[in-house]
Design goal:
Length: 393
């Protein structure tokens, strides 16, 4: 039996895959604990989860208008670096209390990897998005240099200054929750294991009106994820209008946490604060989303084609992967109106090539093994590190 400490940022999309892997490790007889934000991790991992509290800095809310390089600068300078600094003491306390054999650190929870290297604890990387494998910054050498300077400063403060590898990639094991059927040829390091999406059963967030779904129409899911409610009002309104124009054969379920839609769309649009996404994907014909990695991966795991409207961060990279794989259509988030959204919807609903491509990615995801494969790789990694310690002088 091994002891695994998962270090995660306060981001739902980064915690959910780790929850599935942790559940599989527990099923196999291992001990699992968490370092993160207790109210978030506990709500996703369940009431029995052992969660060691980590602080998060105040004022992490990003101005909604930021895009492109400005959004990237905020992500690193005002989110990832302060988050690592704030979390580090809690991660060290978790290590002292739990005594893990392996730390599993999310790529955006840099306190996990840096604390692991300083305390000489083997660690694996949880890569919940493939954007870091895409060489997206290859054409922006000054931005890439700036990020490496920030990482160097964090390492000097929190890690082992003698180390030279990129702390976003464990030199021992990187778990990528995707496959090359979606990413294409990419710059993943050789220690990467592509395991596909890792899912576990999730409690429905709220009662859902299943009786209002019309089996005679296409079910389309519309979601902008958990972090984009402040920028999505116009887009959701245009999506609803596009669906109303197709109400005879299309019905949409829209995640509308801000209550933007006024309920005047009849039964063509079911607006809910939160949707039971995995259950709905079982019957969905298409998904309209922002290109977030989790939503894209979960949709393609169900063989559902997409309309992707990326907003910022890794979303343009993931959207490009979807279109390159042939599994969806990309539109412009800031400029697409009901007509552009409707035309894209018509394309993925009536063009069989999109569903065929989505099912090709689905087959790859299923073959990769998901949470079971990730747990097996972590077991092997833990065993190999123990053997290495036993053989050391």
């Amino acid at each position: 039996m091994s002891r695994f400490l998962f270090v995660v940022p306060p981001l739902v999309g980064h915690v959910n895959p780790a929850v599935a892997v942790a559940a599989e490790l527990t099923r196999r007889g291992h001990r699992v604990a968490w370092a993160g934000l207790p109210e978030l991790v506990g709500g996703l991992a369940g009431p029995g989860a052992e969660v060691h509290a980590c602080a998060v800095p105040d004022g992490l809310r990003r101005p909604p208008e930021l895009r492109g390089v400005a959004a990237l600068r905020f992500l690193w300078q005002d989110f990832l670096v302060p988050l690592a600094t704030a979390m580090a003491p809690g991660v060290e306390r978790a290590v002292d209390a739990f005594r893990p054999d392996v730390i599993v650190a999310d790529q955006q929870a840099l306190a996990g990897s840096l604390t692991a290297e300083r305390l000489r604890i083997p660690h694996a990387t949880s890569a919940t998005t493939s954007a870091e494998f895409s060489a997206a910054l290859a054409g922006m050498p000054k931005v890439e240099e700036w990020i490496h300077e920030l990482l160097g400063g964090l390492r000097a403060a929190l890690g082992d200054p003698a180390r030279t590898h990129d702390p976003r990639f464990s030199p021992g094991l990187v778990l990528a929750f995707t496959t090359t059927a979606l990413t294409g040829e990419c710059a993943a390091p050789p220690q990467t294991r592509f395991v596909g999406p890792a899912l576990t059963g999730r409690p429905d967030p709220a009662p859902f009106p299943w009786d209002r779904l019309d089996p005679g129409r296409h079910t389309v899911l519309v979601s902008l994820g958990t972090a984009n409610a402040d920028v999505g009002n116009r887009f959701l309104t245009e999506c609803a209008a596009a669906v109303r124009d197709r109400a005879r054969h299309v019905q949409a379920v829209v995640a509308d946490p801000g209550g933007v839609l006024d309920g005047s769309s009849g039964d063509a649009v079911l607006a809910v604060e939160r949707m039971p996404q995995l259950a709905l994907l079982e019957r969905a014909s298409a998904v309209v989303c922002h290109g977030g990695h989790n939503t894209v991966a979960e949709s393609l795991l169900h063989g559902v084609p997409l309309v992707v409207a990326p907003i910022r961060d890794d979303q343009p990279v993931i959207a490009a992967q979807v279109t390159a794989a042939g599994a969806g259509i990309r539109i412009r988030f800031g400029r697409s109106d009901r007509h552009a959204i409707g035309a894209a919807l018509d394309g993925v609903l009536t063009g069989p090539r999109y569903r065929t491509a989505a099912r090709r990615v689905q087959d790859s995801f299923r073959a990769a093994g998901g949470a079971a494969a990730a747990a097996a790789h972590l077991e092997q990694f833990a065993a190999s590190t123990r053997q290495g310690e036993a053989g050391s002088p």
